[in-house]
């Protein structure tokens, strides 16, 4: 695995190893963490080097019948969740900048008609939103009142925007990006993602790019912007019946 920031390693380590390990073998680990929030009472992380880590609350472990010394595997663990009515949301890819690529980003002079957006850009941002579909707006979750917002313009019209907000009280900034349909495929999103990511790094944050596994265009954008796959992360669905 590429060398990622200690901030990233520490964040995910705290999620999956605070508490105690219930089961571990060469590729699969299950841990119990009593400090997980209700919205994250079970999570699974598959890192790009092949490790699969699961974590859940003590109450949920009891509910699905886990105990110390039990022989487990990832399929068995998932089956126990399913049998207990625990539904996962569906995995997202997690992308970050490696330390090498982040250093390159910090030295880069980004060009083009793009800049940071502020509340004074309310009119142009509203016009931008009105030109996008509801589905695109929901998927991207780009908002003018987020912690950081950047946009790319063409003939004074905002055509691509990205925004970030702090992730789980960590020094990680989760980003979303949206390009209006007629302007896709020519590099606007790549420049905006790199610009807002450089801004986040300058503020002491690690940029985080998430997308669904079947969103091939978003995966391609992450790679084009210089991000590296960290792993696949899944969490309990808000609609779970457990």
What report would you give on this structure?
- This is N-acetyltransferase domain-containing protein.
- Residues 104-242 form the N-acetyltransferase domain.
- The protein is of the alpha+beta class and 242 residues long.
- An eleven-stranded mixed sheet has the order 1-2-4-3-11-5-10-9-8-7-6, sandwiched between helices.
- It folds into two domains: 6-93, no CATH class; 98-226, Gcn5-related N-acetyltransferase (GNAT) (Aminopeptidase, 3-Layer(aba) Sandwich).
- The radius of gyration is 20 Å and the shape is elongated.
- The protein is 32% helix and 29% strand.
- The protein is built from eight helices and eleven strands.
Task: Give a quick summary of the entry.
This protein has 242 residues and is α+β, with helices and mostly antiparallel strands. The chain is built from eight helices and eleven strands.
What layout of secondary structure does this protein have?
Elements: H1 6-17, E1 20-24, E2 28-32, E3 42-47, E4 52-56, H2 58-64, H3 74-83, E5 92-96, H4 99-106, E6 114-116, H5 122-130, H6 134-140, E7 148-154, E8 157-166, E9 172-179, H7 188-202, E10 206-212, H8 216-224, E11 228-235
């Amino acid at each position: 695995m590429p060398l990622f920031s200690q901030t990233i390693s520490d964040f995910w380590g705290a999620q999956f190893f605070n508490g105690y390990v219930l089961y571990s073998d060469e590729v699969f680990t299950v841990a119990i963490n009593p400090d997980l929030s209700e919205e994250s009472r079970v999570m699974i992380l598959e890192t790009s080097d092949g490790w699969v880590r699961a974590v859940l609350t003590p109450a949920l472990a009891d509910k699905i019948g886990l105990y110390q010394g039990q022989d487990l595997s990832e399929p068995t663990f998932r089956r126990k969740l399913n049998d207990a009515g625990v539904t996962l949301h569906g995995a997202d890819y997690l992308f970050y900048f490696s330390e090498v690529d982040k250093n390159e980003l910090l030295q880069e002079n980004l060009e083009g008609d793009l800049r940071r957006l502020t509340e004074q850009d309310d009119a142009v941002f509203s016009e931008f939103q009105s030109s996008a579909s509801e589905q695109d707006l929901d998927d991207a979750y780009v908002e003018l009142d987020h912690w950081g917002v950047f946009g790319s313009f063409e003939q004074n019209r905002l055509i691509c925007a990205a925004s970030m907000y702090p992730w789980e009280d960590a020094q990680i900034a989760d980003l979303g990006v949206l390009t209006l349909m007629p302007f896709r495929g020519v590099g606007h999103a790549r420049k905006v993602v790199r610009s807002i990511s450089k801004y986040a790094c300058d503020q002491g944050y690690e940029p985080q790019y998430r997308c669904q596994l079947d969103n091939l265009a978003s995966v391609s954008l992450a790679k084009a912007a210089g991000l590296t796959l960290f792993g696949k992360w899944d969490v309990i669905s808000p609609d779970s019946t457990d």
